[in-house]
Amino acid sequence: METKLILAPMQGLCDDVMRDLLTRIGGFDECVSEFVRITHTVHSRSTWLRHVPEIATHNRTFAGTPCTVQILGSDANMMAINALEAVRFGANKIDVNFGCPAPTVNKHKGGAILLQEPDLVYQIVKTLRDRLPEHIPLTAKMRLGYENKDLALENAQAIAAGGAAVLTVHARTKVEGYEPPAHWAWVRKIQQVIDIPVVANGDVFTLDDFIGIRRESGCEHIMLGRGAVMRPDLARQIRQFERGETIQIAEFNHEIMNWIRLFFDLCMAKESNNKYPVARLKQWLGMMKKVYPEATQLFDKIRILKESEQVHTVLQDFQAA
Ligand SMILES: Cc1cc2nc3c(=O)[nH]c(=O)nc-3n(C[C@H](O)[C@H](O)[C@H](O)COP(=O)(O)O)c2cc1C
């Protein structure tokens, strides 16, 4: 079985433009939207399309990569009502978030805090599974726990028993935040107690990390988060490795600069009348600085700029230099 590589949902970081860009670069089999929070209201079509524009294009990114809609909440009934609406507007796969560590979200009983209540986790998954049409796959994503890992297996079993088709495990607890290490061996323990496929996730920043997570988790399928943003050709490298092809490593001044300029153009096409394109580019370069020294140089050149036109010129000059 060929590994499935999935681009992680990342609120505020991996929006539709970033998903578009990264899936164009290649290597990904699927991506997942940022979470859409479900409270006491029923979202309109325009809300769904704002969060997940791919719904309007057969749930695929420009490159044709399938995109799953992720929801987050704690009221099983409202989640089902909203998920059904998303499906009515075109969504064809729903993922449930049991991992978000954000205090505001947890305060309203959403995300990782639910991992303290496996019964509720079960009820949410079961309700969604019962109410969604059979042909709509339902998946879930969890952390290893909230404060500790005591309930990790129980939660995974609750998700499987509730009827999820696939479970992604971000191999850390809520209190571990994003601190390394991710506990890849725990994902193996989870896979051993449930019979649905488990996707391993956490701290894959390089091809070697990919080889490590595969070995330690025993999972076929891997989700890439921050590493895919920091090293935009990571999934492509992994795919080429898996296929025994020559691994093509992107050079900053060639491919990566082209992607940066494309990303900026795509951001401009989405929202040109506000800070969005410049802010998104700074955020991305800020992450790429950890991998590419050139990203630091470029970041320093645009750091104080606010106008898109100025940034556009800097990008052009930087690549030409
Ligand atoms: C900025 C940011 C936003 C995130 N937003 C979401 C989200 O909306 N839904 C979700 O399930 N996980 C979210 N996550 C968690 C990631 O999907 C992933 O599980 C985590 O980053 C670990 O993978 P990594 O080490 O490869 O980054 C987010 C992570 C980051 C860094």
Describe this structure as you would to a colleague.
The chain is α/β, with parallel strands linked by helices. It has two domains: 238 residues, TIM Barrel (Alpha-Beta Barrel); 69 residues, Bacteriocin As-48, Chain A (Up-down Bundle), CATH 1.20.225. It is built from 14 helices and eight strands. Strands 1-2-3-4-5-6-7-8 form an eight-stranded parallel beta barrel, surrounded by six helices. Strand 7, helix 8 and strand 8 form a beta-alpha-beta unit. Helix 5 packs parallel to helix 6 and helix 12 runs antiparallel to helix 13. It starts with a strand and ends with a helix. The model has no long low-confidence stretch (mean pLDDT 97). Bound molecules: flavin mononucleotide. Flavin mononucleotide binds next to strand 2 and helix 9.
Features:
single chain; 2 domains; 8 strands; alpha/beta; 14 helices; TIM Barrel; eight-stranded parallel barrel; Bacteriocin As-48, Chain A
